[in-house]
Design goal:
The complex is a heterodimer of chains A (715) and B (248). Chain A is of the alpha+beta class and 715 residues long. Helix content of chain A is 16%, strand content 24%. The chains are: A alpha+beta (715), B alpha+beta (248).
């Protein structure tokens, strides 16, 4: 290029020596940097071949960052105009002759040829030397840029960080340093998890019991106001679902009723507060600096393997094949591992404008499923204004399967490559490689079912023994089912008048032959047995006393169709009568709330009976109330057996568990571990629930399990 | 004695020649010319120069004898120093050629001088080809990162902003020299002419305005390292300084 110039020069007379100095325009960028609060400074770059008479500064750092835009006060989470992290753009020009004709400062995000902000330098901004770029006659810049679709509030955001701030110059002359630039970041300081208010949970389906999700929520809050950062918390799923007939035990109702009640699982509103790092390295709530930053919510299956046996085998089903891997209940057994049912369900979010207050009955944050390959995770977005500004969140919805355990991690999903592929969207096992400040991790959420034991009723205080409920609960705890004792140790005794009147009413409604079996008088005062009956011999005497002839009485007693032909048949007859009368006498005592009531008498009938207990269906129970009758003492049990085992067994029936095949009914119903014979649901001296029962109690589908333990495993 | 109004390109050497004097001092030393014009080679356009009457010079000479009269013609020079904005610095020069009339000077040291120019010539040219700039060198690498570093390390190739177009050849600067037109530093135009000669963006005019003030401000920022917002930025502020920088 040729530069044409005009010069007016002087001749030099023979006796003079003066010169004409002729110069040409030269210019260049010396440096450009950003100054933050507290002396932080970005690092300046030029091409290595650039030269200016003044060398650029060598101070500064590539990690320079600041927090653009207005801020909230952390204590009140409301805007505080006094809080800001303004910075200064400082630059130095080598422009001794004012030859720069065009100069502009631009900001480029990565992978873009287009700047998101441009400022043309004019007039005195082009003078030689140091400058601080002015914004509305002020030195300070709050990070505001030009209107741009990727920057909803016209502030630079974490989403597209880091940035390049570049000063480019041109003019007529020798340009020895055409450009200078510096890099800077908008970075996250920390994430902080909290529970959102339960009012944001979606309205529950009509077929669910009212308030189950909020009850779960209240239980969580009781264990800690904020999500755990370590250890384990229990997520209790209220699960007062009971058989309403014996047939229910021979269906998959434990699974289907639990499914109906809990659907895709409990709903836990997890919020995340997002903090941005200021230029002075303090954590601030710069709520305009997040933009459409994605937060990736990930979950891990952290359930611990059962020690051995049936459950361990079933838990191993495709344990290392699924994404994510683990021992949580597999989709094939009704769980969410490998399921397309999201643990973080999609949410519509607030729409274009954030409302002034958190919505009621709808979740405030937008949540979408992550695309392949990490499609089990979800992205959420933060509010950029309002009460939830600088917050984001999801509804955490683990599977309803007791025993499942989840660890939740929220990551700042910011790093992407040239193809806009996010670096965290991979299908590798958690935890994902991410700096600690870019994630928040919960402790383990352990899913439990919960059945309430609301009332313990004894016939009277003659019933000497008392069930140790903790022992019973301990057995169910192996299946992660909490028998929650709401009795607080209190025992209700049926009032004498109530008992006697109910017995009388029940007996009077039966045939004369059956009425004759009942010992006359005050049944309540006779003792702890359920119903006091005459012996067969006493029955004959009583019948004769009514005026019947010997021939008539003996013919009646010996007629097999009357079921009293000998003492054994008489006892069986009495057993049937006793069930009816005792249940009539106890049933009005059943607690009206959902859950179990324990009824307890020494024996069902006074004339001897092999019945230890009875899971009887409370009239009008509607499947959410049940009553279990214990009618035996420890002495009535075989060696090694006791009333707690009986209680566990009878509760099991209410929880839809049938007897083992060797116990009698429906031998082909395959609902037990075929490798053991001592399941509590057997009539053998029991040890514990078999694995099949345990998994059913956890909520797994019976239909997906097989009696042989090894048949349930697959690698 | 006559008064002659100077015009563009005039200096005492040229006026003397026009007026028939062989030595400019014959005019310059006359009356108060010397005090009015401190530098005989820098005359404000339109100034009045006093030209003495030619004096009869009488010699007593013997008849039939041969006598030689020697007329001493004083030479006039044109001296140019090519400099950077910092006048003490000389740029790298591949070649430079000064041409006035039929006379030429060429060299690469930055100082070009033709020591016997015709003072009647008012135009000259100077062509300077600067040495080739250094080959393009990429910027230094950004700070290396470590695994899981946050903020993440800067990866310069991730940025797609336009890359520098780096010149491969030295610039050629062609000056049209208006010889004799440099006015004294004591007048506005003289200061502005010197600013222009030194490469400053500056109008050459008789009045001061915003562009002249900016040029002065620019000069002061660079040469005097003065950045005073309340400066008047008048050319008078830099008269002495720029004379020394340009003329010495």
């Amino acid at each position: 290029m040729v530069i044409n110039r005009t010069a007016r020069v002087a001749r030099t007379a023979h006796d003079k020596t003066h010169l004409n100095h002729l110069g040409f325009p030269e210019f260049g960028v010396v440096e450009i940097q950003i100054k933050g609060q507290g002396g932080s400074l970005s690092k300046c770059y030029r091409d290595g071949s650039s030269t200016t008479s003044t060398a650029p500064a060598t101070t500064g750092d590539d990690t320079f960052h600041f927090a653009p835009g207005p801020q909230y006060a952390a204590a009140t989470w409301t805007a505080d105009p006094t809080l800001k992290d303004d910075v200064q753009i400082v630059y130095k020009l080598h422009n001794p002759q004012f030859a720069i004709k065009e100069a502009k400062i631009e900001i480029f995000p990565r992978f873009s040829k287009n700047s998101v902000w441009t400022r043309e330098l004019k007039d005195d901004e082009l003078l030689h030397g140091e400058h601080t770029l002015q914004f509305n006659a002020q030195d300070n810049w709050e990070g505001k840029i030009d209107a741009h679709a990727d920057y909803p509030d016209q502030f630079l955001t974490v989403e597209h960080s880091p940035y390049k701030l570049k000063l480019t110059i041109s003019g007529e002359g020798v340009n020895t340093s055409p450009a200078g630039w510096t890099y800077f970041h908008i970075i996250i300081a920390k994430l902080e998890l909290e529970y959102g208010p339960k009012t944001v949970l979606p309205a529950q389906a009509a077929n669910m019991e009212g308030g189950i999700h909020t009850e779960t929520y209240d239980d969580l809050i009781a264990q800690g106001a904020a999500p755990p950062t370590g250890g384990t918390v229990k997520v209790f799923l209220k699960s007062d679902i009971f058989k309403t007939s014996s047939d229910d035990m021979f269906k998959n109702q434990l699974f289907t009723r639990h499914e109906t009640l809990w659907g895709d699982g409990p709903q836990i509103p997890l919020f995340c507060k997002v903090w941005v790092k200021s230029s002075s390295d303090t954590d601030v709530v710069a709520y305009k600096a997040l933009g459409r930053l994605k937060f990736l919510w990930d979950w891990e299956s952290t359930s611990v393997a059962s020690p051995t046996g049936f459950t361990a085998s079933a838990e191993k089903y495709l344990v290392n094949k699924t994404k994510p891997k683990g021992r949580n209940c597999h989709d094939k057994r009704g769980g969410k591992r490998a399921s397309n049912k999201p643990v973080f369900p999609a949410q519509a979010g607030p729409g274009a404008a954030t409302p002034a207050a958190l919505p009621v009955g709808s979740f405030p944050f937008e949540v979408v499923a992550v695309d392949k390959p990490r499609k089990w995770a979800a992205y959420s977005y933060a509010w950029n204004d309002g009460v939830a500004a600088s917050k984001t969140g999801v509804i955490f919805q683990p599977a309803r399967m007791a025993g499942d355990e989840y660890k939740v991690t929220v990551y700042v999903n910011q790093e992407y490559d040239r193809k806009k592929k996010y670096k965290l969207n991979v299908d590798t096992d958690a935890p994902l490689p991410s700096p600690d400040v870019l994630k928040a991790v919960t402790g383990d959420y352990h899913i439990w079912r919960r059945v309430n034991v609301r009332k313990y009723v004894k016939k009277n205080n003659s019933v000497a023994e008392t069930i140790n409920l903790a022992t019973v609960a301990g057995e169910y705890a192996k299946a992660f089912l909490e028998l929650k004792d709401l009795t607080a140790g209190s025992i209700t005794y049926v009032a004498e008048a109530d008992w006697n009147s109910r017995v009388t009413a029940s007996v009077n409604g039966r045939s004369a032959a059956l009425q004759r079996m009942v010992t006359p008088g005050n049944q309540h005062a006779k003792g702890g047995n359920g119903v006091y009956l005459r012996t067969r011999a006493e029955y004959r005497v009583a019948y004769l006393a009514e005026g019947a002839t010997v021939a008539v009485v003996d013919a009646f007693l010996n007629d097999p169709s009357n079921g009293m032909q000998d003492d054994d048949h008489y006892e069986k007859k009495g057993k049937t009568l006793g069930r009816g009368v005792v249940s009539d006498a106890f049933s009005p005592e059943a607690d009206p709330g959902s859950g179990c009531t324990i009824f307890h008498c020494d024996k069902l009938i006074s004339i001897g009976c092999d019945l230890l207990g009875w899971a009887y269906d409370v009239p009008g129970g509607a499947g959410n109330r049940c009553g279990f009758l214990l009618c035996a003492t420890n002495a009535d049990h075989s060696a090694g057996d006791n009333i707690e085992n009986t209680a566990t067994h009878e509760f099991g029936h209410h929880f839809f568990l049938p007897h083992t095949p060797d116990a009698g009914e429906k031998k082909n119903y395959k609902a037990h571990d075929s490798s053991i014979t001592t399941c509590i649901m057997s009539y053998n001296v029991p040890t514990e629930f078999c694995g099949f029962c345990q998994l059913r109690l956890r909520g797994w589908s019976k239909n997906a399990l097989k009696p042989a333990p090894s048949a349930n495993s697959k690698t | 004695m006559a008064n002659v109004a100077s015009s563009a390109g005039d200096c005492f050497s040229r006026i003397a020649r026009i007026q028939g004097f062989f030595n400019y001092l014959s005019v310059y030393n006359h009356a108060d010319n010397a005090t009015t014009f401190p530098n005989p080679n820098q005359i404000e356009e339109g100034s009045t120069v006093k030209v003495p009457d030619k004096q009869m010079k009488a010699f007593n000479l013997p008849l039939d004898a041969e006598k030689k009269f020697k007329i001493i013609r004083q030479k006039t020079k044109l001296r140019i120093k090519i400099c950077m904005a910092d006048a003490a610095q000389t740029p790298g020069i591949a070649k430079a050629r000064l041409t006035i009339g039929a006379k030429k000077a060429a060299e690469t040291t930055g100082t070009l001088e033709i020591d016997d120019i015709d003072p009647m010539l008012t135009n000259a040219s100077l062509t300077v080809v600067l040495t080739n700039p250094p080959a393009y060198v990429a910027p230094p690498p950004t700070t290396a990162g470590v695994a899981n570093q946050y903020p993440p390390p800067i990866v310069a190739p991730d940025f797609d902003d336009p890359k520098t177009v780096w010149p491969k050849e030295g610039e050629t600067i062609v000056w049209n020299l208006q010889v004799g037109s440099l006015e004294p530093h004591t007048v506005i135009r003289g200061v502005l002419q010197r600013l222009e000669n030194l490469g400053f963006a500056c109008p050459v005019q008789k009045v001061e305005d915003a562009p002249t003030r900016r040029a002065v401000r620019t000069y002061r920022r660079f040469v005097e390292s003065k950045v005073a917002p309340n400066d008047t930025d008048a050319v008078a502020d830099i008269q002495a300084n720029i004379r020394a920088r340009h003329d010495d």
